[in-house]
Write a structure and sequence with these properties.
By secondary structure, the protein is of the alpha+beta class. It is built from four helices and six strands.
């Protein structure tokens, strides 16, 4: 199973397959694993992701409070860019500064042991009035109930080319 997971992640990183083909392979592979015992059930996985994205998209929640979802050594790899926990918090602040609103809808969530795989769509309105829609495929690794790693690919479905990096963008203060 681990070899299959590494293979699928490699495909995702290299963008050799279409997003739907990758997810079909992933869903089939992880679905087979769900027939055995699992440390995390489906509802747990859904709750973790719903709570994370509800907090991330709620400007009333201070950005630093997002750290409670993650381990101290958290790493996120998005479209080949790597963020640590501080980088992710800067990224979250960048999103909040650029967007009026954002909502996340989940197409698929699969849980197995300490791993969650999902496909979600982000719909957002930027402060300049532009609208964007992004498809995200992500693998989350949990440790002690917190997210320790995320590997994800994003695909801009609607919006301007300049927003292709929105999944990892960090504004540098002037």
């Amino acid at each position: 199973m681990m070899a299959l997971k590494r293979y699928l992640l490699a495909l995702m990183r290299e963008k050799r397959q279409t997003y739907n083909a990758i997810f079909t392979l992933t869903a089939n592979a992880l679905g087979l694993c769900l027939q055995g015992e699992s440390k995390m059930n489906q509802r747990d996985a859904e709750n973790i992701l719903h709570d994370l994205f509800a907090s991330l998209t709620n400007p009333a929640i201070p950005t630093e409070n997002l750290a409670s979802f993650f381990t101290r050594d958290y790493i996120q790899i998005v479209d080949g860019e790597t963020l640590d926990l501080d980088g992710f918090l800067q990224h979250a602040a960048t999103l909040r500064n650029a967007l009026i609103r954002a909502e996340v809808s989940f197409e698929k969530i699969i849980a197995q042991d300490d791993t969650i795989a999902d496909i979600h769509i982000v719909r957002a309105e930027k402060k300049n009035g532009d609208h964007i829609r992004v498809k995200v495929i992500a693998f989350y690794t949990l440790r002690d109930g917190r997210i320790s790693r995320i590997e994800e690919l994003t695909h801009l479905l609607d919006g301007k080319d300049e927003d292709r990096d929105l999944g990892s963008r960090i504004d540098v203060p002037e």
